[in-house]
Design a protein that fits this description.
It is a single chain. This protein is α/β, with parallel strands linked by helices and 190 residues long. It has five helices and seven strands. Strand 4 and strand 5 form a beta hairpin. Helix 2 packs antiparallel against helix 3. The chain is globular, with a radius of gyration of 19 Å.
Length: 190
């Protein structure tokens, strides 16, 4: 059993080392590099930011402990969605997240309202799936560079895009049945 564990740890270490070396090679890529893609390190930072934000928000204000809210990070831009019971809780949420490491900007889209129902949340998941599928299957769009978040029928779009790409993404998302409103939370690269 000990030999299998040692072999597994060695394999894991080699995999991590290989990924680290390969991600370092991307810095040597000439002008053909796709600036709309996140590096592994940025992806990791975004995941860490989301986890850390969820934890600190629950402790930042009593109204946030039981609020229905979501935190989405993309390249250091953080989107807060969901419902909170007060304006004060909404402002505390934004300021708390803004203080976290690797956060460049906070899109505070929290609503002062009661939490949405499970049916509404299920519809949001279905709508996100339909929009994401439409983007990924459209050959004129790099759909894998776009993050789709839906809250109470409102579709939020995040990603590193040019202004033309952003307009194209919004136009395609607008064609999906059920979309009530689209909010662009893009970071523009031009």
């Amino acid at each position: 059993m000990e030999n299998i564990t040692t072999l597994t740890l060695r394999t894991l270490f080699l995999l991590i080392a290989t990924i680290s070396l390969l991600s370092g090679c991307s810095a040597l890529t000439p002008a053909s590099e796709d600036y709309g893609k996140r590096s592994f390190g940025v992806y990791w930072d975004d995941q860490t930011t989301e986890s850390r934000a969820k934890k600190v928000l629950r402790q930042a204000h009593p109204d946030l402990a039981d609020a229905h809210l979501s935190v989405t990070s993309f390249n250091g831009s953080v989107l807060l969605t969901g419902q909170v019971p007060s304006d004060e809780a909404k402002q505390v949420a934004a300021s708390t997240v803004a203080e976290l490491r690797h956060v460049k900007f906070v899109h505070n889209e929290l609503e002062v309202a009661g939490p949405t129902s499970m049916v509404a949340r299920s519809n949001d998941v279905w709508l996100s799936t339909k929009v994401k599928t439409a983007l990924v299957t459209d050959e004129s769009i790099e759909g894998n560079r776009i993050k789709v978040i839906t809250e109470d029928g409102v579709v939020y779009l995040m990603g590193l895009v040019t202004r033309d790409e952003g307009d194209l993404v919004v136009e395609r998302a607008r064609q999906v049945f059920g979309v009530q409103k689209i909010v662009k939370a893009f970071e523009y690269i031009n």
